[in-house]
Write a structure and sequence with these properties.
Distance between the termini: 24 Å
Oligomer: single chain
Number of strands: 0
Amino acid sequence: MTALPSSGALYALLAAFGLIFGSFVTALSYRLPRGESVAHGRSHCPACGHVLAVPDLIPVLSWALNKGACRHCRTRVSWRYPAIEMLSAALFVGAGALAPDIPHLVLLLAMTPIMLALAIIDIEHQRLPNSLLLPLAILAVAWRWEGDKDFLTGMIAAAVTLVLGFGLDAVHKAISGRLGLGMGDTKLLAIAALALPLPVFLACAGMAGTVAVVIGLLSVRPANWRTQMTFGPAILASYWAALAAGSHLIGALLTAA
């Protein structure tokens, strides 16, 4: 394995790339649920339709300099744009600090924008598009290849996760008439099972459940949290943390053993 150099220059570079990819995530998470092309069509103001130029597209800075408004029509621009860009930058820097080597860093950086876009789309639209889940699954296979290469265990864990998830959802739907753990959430957990060694995956799943319950209780009325919250962001946050810090967790488990 090629160890990662630790330097301020590296983190500054990762932060810059994180801001750039964060800007892409803002567009992807806005356009994809609306059926708009991500590859074609220049960015424009949703209010006045004016095509945005370079001064309008500098991550965070353009929003701040224009005081959170469109430079052309002065319509307010949501804080979601700089927030997503800054979160993306923080995740890129975190990946640089936690990834054990260069191949894992590259894979984690490739997964991060996809996972961030999925979390935002799930929060805003209660959807986890297959068009984003598929590349995430492919990257999960690559992650396993760079890890323990135990594809058989990964495939079995992913298959069991899918069966259990779909089964539990069917039982919950039959009893309550409402969705439980949705198909998209189940697919996300199966992708995590495909990528992670079993102890790390179990830790990831447990952490996701805990985070989901805490967020649900804090953000919505306790009596209605099961029908108002989305599990995807909690699963994605836990999965990212397991990818970034999984090697440290395995080391700690081996030391304890």
